[in-house]
Design goal:
The complex is a heterodimer.
Chain A: E1 4-7, E2 10-14, E3 19-25, E4 32-38, E5 44-50, E6 56-59, E7 62-67, E8 72-77, E9 86-94, E10 97-100, E11 104-109
Parallel strand pairs in A: 2-11
Antiparallel strand pairs in A: 1-3, 3-8, 4-5, 4-9, 6-7, 7-8, 9-10, 9-11
Chain B: E1 4-7, E2 10-13, E3 19-25, E4 31-37, E5 44-51, E6 54-57, E7 64-66, E8 76-78, E9 87-94, E10 106-107, E11 111-115
Parallel strand pairs in B: 2-11
Antiparallel strand pairs in B: 1-3, 3-8, 4-5, 4-9, 5-6, 7-8, 9-10, 9-11
Classes of the chains: A mainly beta, B mainly beta.
């Protein structure tokens, strides 16, 4: 059974710092991997999708990579801002559904 | 604006009552999903549908029912058989890419159900 783990569970950094969020999965047979952002009491906002044939994706200050052989994905956030404060979720896609991690709660201090 | 609309945003239910959560999308997506979110846990899949008039159980389908009569709509009924229904419910949709690939999922704003 696929399980997705996110480390750390919570992270507090000063504004301007670069940071890395980690996601690991037990079954390397995932087909794609998606990173989301969730603000308190809100739905999920898609940040990046790494397709099966890809190893990384970039959008603005965000970069996500996927290494299926090691069962890991990382989300890199450059020059963090207070507006980046949210919960970040990764999800691995396999057989028509996404399996979610429990998320990393990020606080960026001004 | 294209997107996914969930209603109601907040819902209170007495024990023993069935309630239906609405999910409508105008993205022309084939696939739709219902997830449940509880504090400290990842999102868990309740039901999903890849095509009209067809749907499959997810990991926690007991006590829930769905229908998919229209491409745009995928309502979820929380029945009295669901033992712990208080949760945040999230609907999503995607362009189904095939047998394995979910494609990129897009989510609605969620519905918070509280059982009194």
């Amino acid at each position: 059974k696929q399980e997705v783990t996110q480390i750390p569970a919570a992270l507090s950094v000063p504004e301007g710092e670069n940071l890395v969020l980690n996601c690991s999965f037990t079954d390397s047979a995932i087909y794609n991997l998606q990173w989301f952002r969730q603000d308190p009491g809100k739905g999920l906002t898609s940040l990046l999708l790494i397709q099966s044939s890809q190893r990384e994706q970039t959008s603005g200050r965000l970069n996500a990579s996927l290494d299926k052989s090691s069962g890991r994905s990382t989300l890199y956030i450059a020059a963090s801002q207070p507006g980046d404060s949210a919960t970040y979720l990764c999800a691995g896609g396999a057989t028509n559904k996404l399996i979610f991690g429990t998320g990393t709660l990020l606080a960026v201090q001004p | 604006d294209g997107g996914i609309t969930q209603s109601p945003k907040y819902l209170f239910r007495k024990e023993g009552q069935n309630v239906t959560l609405s999910c409508e999308q105008n993205l022309n997506h084939d696939a739709m999903y219902w997830y449940r979110q509880d504090p400290g846990q990842g999102l868990r899949l309740i039901y999903y549908s890849q095509i009209v008039n067809d749907f499959q159980k997810g990991d926690i389908a007991e006590g829930y029912s769905v229908s998919r009569e229209k491409k745009e709509s995928f309502p979820l009924t929380v029945t009295s058989a669901q033992k712990n229904p208080t949760a945040f419910y999230l609907c999503a949709s995607s362009i189904a890419q095939g047998a394995r690939d979910t494609g990129e999922l897009f989510f609605g704003e969620g519905s918070r159900l509280t059982v009194l």
